[in-house]
């Protein structure tokens, strides 16, 4: 989610090239800026008219898929009574976070790329237009002109953190259903679930704003390589600020929750494996119903087991989409820019926002039934059904 050295800005200039890079940036001196003569916005390996066209087509398609898929998901969960459960509320939270990416983050990149294609000059808030520190706000933003990335960047970061924390909560909820099925209704209530959802949203967006709140040495700029708004530390005398490591909070948070999710999934699937083995032995007559370990009095339901497997797939999909960003951040730390790779890393993560509805469609028969009833207007609505 972060780009430590992706487009580092210094007062009075538009961009500074790190010592080691595979795709050099433009370097514009203050004199060139004052005369109004701008070099090409980025090198051929990162941009070009044809590449921008393909990027815009991809972005528009992705935004459409994200919005439509998550609108369908929200409609199904809202109109289906069987979905008004703690697990259903968590899925709604995940869908809202994904839809915000398709409504705000991706369209802003589309608008910026189209503006760069049809105009000869970049917007005043484009990469490298940072104001001097004396004119910066206390949060590290720009006073004039206003930088839209100060909104779009934290939204993307916050929604990603919400997705990670929501998947973690879904995993914990399913693990309770698997490991403690008799206590599930007492431990996992709607009120507690809604409270945890609110806390996850508040904590996620507070973390997304942490570099701007706790330091005046950061801003957000639209980057020409990733085509997204990236956190950017301001250089002073070609040196990173002393608090530049605050950005490490992002990967630390991500990997902590993903590691916790993996550990909880391992416990759940281990229990499922043991239960499946007992069922097999019972069917073969090797264990008696009244035996010490063969009765399985606290066995989880089939729907709980299938839901746990579905959440495991969600976790795997998110981990796979987040891994390129982790590799990219590691490359930034050692001094590489990886212009082309940054585009794929950030947009693979954004593309995950339309994956959840696909996973639900394949794995959740209730969701498929809700979608079918949603598009069959001649039938009664889902909330009129009886289970």
What's the structural blueprint in terms of helices and strands?
Layout: H1 30-35, H2 49-79, H3 86-118, H4 149-179, H5 184-187, H6 190-208, H7 210-213, E1 218-222, E2 229-233, H8 249-284, H9 302-333, H10 339-351, H11 355-363, H12 365-375
Antiparallel strand pairs: 1-2
Helix pairs in contact: 2-3, 2-11, 2-12, 3-4, 3-6, 4-6, 4-8, 4-9, 8-9, 9-10, 9-11
In short:
With 387 residues, this protein is mainly alpha-helical. 59% of the residues lie in helices and 3% in strands.
Unreliable segments of 5+ consecutive residues: 2-41, 129-144, 289-296
Write down the Rg. 24 Å
Query: How much of the sequence is in beta strands?
Result: under 5%
Q: What oligomeric state best describes the polypeptide chains here? A: single chain
Descriptive account of the structure:
This protein has 387 residues and is an all-alpha fold. Helices cover 59% and strands 3% of the residues. It has 12 helices and 2 strands, in the order αααααααββααααα. Strands 1-2 form a two-stranded antiparallel sheet. A hairpin with a 6-residue loop joins β1 and β2. The longest helix is centred in the C-terminal third of the chain and has 36 residues. It is globular, with a radius of gyration of 24 Å. The two termini are 43 Å apart. The N terminus is likely disordered.
């Amino acid at each position: 989610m972060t780009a430590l050295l992706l487009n580092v800005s210094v007062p009075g200039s538009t961009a500074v090239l790190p010592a080691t890079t595979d795709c050099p940036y433009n370097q514009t001196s203050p004199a060139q800026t004052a005369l109004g003569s701008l070099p090409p916005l980025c090198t051929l390996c990162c941009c070009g008219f044809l590449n921008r066209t393909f990027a815009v087509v991809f972005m528009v398609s992705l935004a459409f898929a994200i919005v439509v898929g998550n609108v369908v998901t929200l409609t199904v969960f809202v109109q289906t009574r069987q979905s008004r459960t703690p697990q259903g509320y968590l899925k709604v939270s995940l869908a809202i976070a994904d839809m915000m990416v398709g409504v705000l983050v991706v369209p802003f990149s589309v608008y910026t790329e189209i503006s760069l294609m049809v105009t000869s000059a970049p917007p005043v808030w484009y990469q490298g237009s940072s104001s001097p520190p004396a004119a910066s706000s206390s949060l590290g933003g720009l006073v004039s002109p206003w930088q839209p990335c100060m909104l779009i960047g934290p939204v993307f970061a916050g929604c990603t953190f919400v997705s990670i924390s929501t998947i973690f909560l879904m995993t914990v909820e399913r693990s309770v259903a698997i490991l403690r099925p008799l206590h599930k209704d007492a431990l996992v209530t709607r009120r507690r679930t809604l409270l945890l959802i609110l806390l996850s949203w508040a904590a996620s967006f507070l973390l997304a704003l942490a570099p701007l709140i706790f330091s005046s040495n950061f801003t957000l700029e639209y980057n020409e390589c990733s085509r997204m708004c990236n956190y950017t530390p301001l250089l002073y005398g070609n040196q990173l600020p002393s608090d530049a490591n605050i950005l490490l909070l992002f990967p630390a948070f991500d990997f902590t929750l993903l590691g916790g999710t993996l550990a909880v999934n391992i416990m759940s699937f281990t229990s499922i494996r043991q239960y499946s083995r007992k069922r097999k032995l019972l069917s073969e007559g090797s264990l008696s119903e009244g035996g010490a370990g063969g009765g399985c009095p606290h066995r989880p339901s089939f729907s709980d087991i299938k839901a746990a497997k579905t959440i495991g797939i969600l976790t795997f999909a998110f981990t796979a989409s987040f891994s390129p960003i982790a590799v990219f951040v590691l490359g930034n730390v050692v001094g590489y820019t990886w212009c082309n790779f940054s585009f794929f890393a950030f947009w693979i993560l954004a593309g995950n926002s339309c994956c959840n509805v696909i996973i639900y469609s394949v794995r959740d028969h209730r969701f498929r039934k809700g979608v079918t009833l949603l598009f069959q207007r001649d039938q009664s609505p889902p909330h009129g059904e009886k289970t």
